[in-house]
Amino acid sequence: MDATSAAGGGGLAVAVAVVFLLLGVALVAAGVLGVRRAVAARRRGAALRDRGVRARGTVVDLQINTRGRGPEARTTYRPVVTFTTADGAEVTTVAGPDATAAWVERTPVVVRHDPADPEHAEVLEPVPGVALGTSTAAPLAVGLLLAVVGLVVGATALAGLVT
């Protein structure tokens, strides 16, 4: 094997390493962003559980969310509920949690809402299905793996070019 073919193969390895490294960094960034969002959502949920007030309400509509395409698509449903606060204000809002089964309109529900911001609410019962949350750890783990592979392939290719 001559120096030209070795350099060409090394260049391809470096290109592959750069692609793996960039994909890895992008997935790590997506994973970190997902973890931050999940932590913020847990904090909001904990605050709602701490100071939330229960009220009886009714499902009046659905918010349908579809993520992905084709057979990989995942559809979740969030209820639009109407309830009356303790001070008599009628509130209509999209409430959680996401459900994997459709909510039925006109279903009576129990809602917990923030008295300072009644539109921040969640349905406690009944919940027709529980959505499987998007994993924030998966992109992070895959991203780290790709970044490490990219670094190893790149280092190996560069070591081969140097010698």
Walkthrough of the structure:
This protein has one domain. Helices cover about 45% and strands about 30% of the residues. The protein has helices at about 5-50, 135-160, and strands at about 55-65, 75-85, 90-95, 110-115, 115-125. Strands 3-2-1-4-5 form a five-stranded antiparallel beta sheet, covered by helices on one side. Helix 1 (about 5-50) packs antiparallel against helix 2.
Uncertain spans: 1-7
Q: Give the N-to-C terminal Cα separation.
A: 14 Å
The outline comes out as elongated
Structural classification: alpha+beta
Instruction: Please bin the fraction of helical residues.
Output: 40-55%
Q: Could you tell me the strand content as a percent range?
A: 25-35%
Radius of gyration: 25 Å
Domain DUF3592: 56-123
Pfam family, one: DUF3592
Protein name: DUF3592 domain-containing protein
Keywords: Membrane, Transmembrane, Transmembrane helix
Put the structure in a nutshell.
The protein contains 2 helices and 5 strands; from the N terminus they run H-E-E-E-E-E-H.
Task: List the SSEs and their pairings.
Elements: H1 3-51, E1 53-67, E2 74-84, E3 90-94, E4 108-114, E5 117-125, H2 137-162
Antiparallel strand pairs: 1-2, 1-4, 2-3, 4-5
Helix pairs in contact: 1-2
Annotation keywords:
elongated; 163 residues; 5-stranded antiparallel β-sheet; single chain; alpha+beta; 5 strands; disordered N terminus
